[in-house]
TrEMBL record:
Similarity annotation: Belongs to the IlvD/Edd family.
InterPro entries: Dihydro-acid_dehy_C, DiOHA_6PGluconate_deHydtase_CS, ILV_EDD_C, ILV_EDD_N, IlvD/EDD_N, Sugar_Degrad_Dehydratases
PANTHER family for the chain: HYPOTHETICAL DIHYDROXY-ACID DEHYDRATASE (EUROFUNG)-RELATED, HYPOTHETICAL DIHYDROXYACID DEHYDRATASE (EUROFUNG)-RELATED
Residues in Dihydroxy-acid/6-phosphogluconate dehydratase N-terminal domain copies: 56-366
Classification via PROSITE patterns: ILVD_EDD_1
Keyword Iron-sulfur: yes
Record keyword Zinc-finger present: no
Lineage: Bacteria, Pseudomonadati, Pseudomonadota, Betaproteobacteria, Burkholderiales
Protein name, UniProt field: Dihydroxy-acid dehydratase
One term of GO molecular function: hydro-lyase activity
TM spans (from-to): none
Amino acid sequence: MSDTFKKTPSKDGAQPEREPGGLRKSLTNYGDNGFSLFLRKAFIKGAGYTDSALDRPVIGIVNTGSAYNPCHGNAPQLIEAVKRGVMLAGGLPMDFPTISIAESFSQPTSMYLRNLMSIDTEEMIRAQPMDAVVLIGGCDKTVPAQLMGAASANIPTIQLITGSMLTGAHRGERVGACTDCRRYWGRFRAEEIDETEIAAVNNQLVASVGTCSVMGTASTMACIAEALGMTVPGGASPPAVTSDRMRIAEMTGTQAVQMARDGLTIDKILTAEAFENAMRVLLAIGGSTNGIVHLTAIAGRMGYDVDLKALDRMGRETPVLVDLKPSGSHYMEDFHKAGGMATLLRELKPLLNLDTLTVTGRTLGEEIEAAGPAFEQDVVRPFDRPIFPQGGIAVLQGNLAPGGAIIKQSAANAKLMEHEGRAVVFENAADLAARIDADDLDVNADDILVLKNIGPKGAPGMPEAGYIPIPRKLATAGVKDMVRISDGRMSGTAFGTIVLHVTPESAVGGPLAYVQSGDRIRLSVAKREISLLVSDDELAARAARHPVTVPKAERGYRKLFFDTVTQADQGVDFDFLRATEHRGTTPRS
Ligand code: FES
């Protein structure tokens, strides 16, 4: 008989002498732990395992492969490589599925499902026996959902990114999703190209499986995961279909076993200082505005609040150094060839907390040293030659957004960042769709487009509809950008002078709800101001005349979502999923 079934020795007949590990963890409750383990092993042996295999540290591997998710199209190869790494290090790999979310296959919007995926991830990590877990994610909401769930489960955790797609070419021009998707679609709307050409472009924008090839949300979260210390060094940048990506996967499996042996739980890595490093990187890469919402949610799971004003102060001393679209001109595969995150972190070193721990058990500073010396490249700029002199994201305040709003200043039009104009208001996404291209829409290039009811509760799920299209009659006249304001989000691949995440949102009665067409609005990015030039008395009178009805649902996940989702400044997480213990604020000002 294997020692597996011997009764666990105990002190005073009550407490086991050591924490159970491997298959002995998370036993199903039949009222007899010995029987629970006996039954568990009997069933898993049905798959052909030996006692020797079952006595090893168990490494769970979260499989988010799905036919609906081409951004994770390399999941089978990644899992094979992770398993190889786990077995080389003496562990037992066990892959299991969770929800997979792909941006363009998620109705009403992927953000609506992020928290559900985080619950799935947390509870399956808790429910099943594993000594460490490898999270395989890539598409925009998957990495945040996995880190949120794993942060709450708090076991040794390592993130494996699926990797970016390759770029394609259209008539000699290099193209990649999805900055170029938007650019070509804008040209099609402006009737600069015809249906034949837009169909040809459609074939070229996504040249392989993998995540969007620019510094969109997926690439942003990959860089953030590495900056947090949650990936092996170099884990952010290898494209999905490369041998480098497979090597990272094998290394990830090997490291997961070491983390299990060392008891290197996620709470030792996700500290306030690590979040500060991640925010520094978010600013320096010209990263997606979604990154701040996701970081806020992950930090909330660890008991930290994100101080948006401190983040803005940090932004004033952090230039954008990474020359990737949409802020710059390159793609993720170029960033990888330029050394990836090691090149950036080396440049940012004076601004980083170098003592933070990573999944390797070494500090971020030690990993930067281990990456070796800098070399000639043109993707990561030196401090004295930045893409943009300040961080990519600026935090705005004012009577239109008492809880704050943000703008991706590195992807905005410099001429519009100090602007006052007349509001042209759309009440919701349906109103926008119905009127934006109408010939009789009363709109000029100097106006400010305002879209309400696309916040966390408004749409629901805070869709990436903040990239309001330029009205067709202005687009065909050559207008490329206008100031646009909403309580929604914007894809990290988008660009323009676009104010997002206005908090509180209009659906819960934020001041945005009471903006009317013809009102004057002032945007000053230099002063970090977003102001509605309407008196408080007038706004109160409008609120009294047309009180807001906060959306509700009768049942199911939709009800849970409406009842518990928080605003953008809280990460749009469910209120009951945040850590119960408050540990502090990040970044420290
Ligand atoms: Fe999946 Fe862009 S759609 S990463």
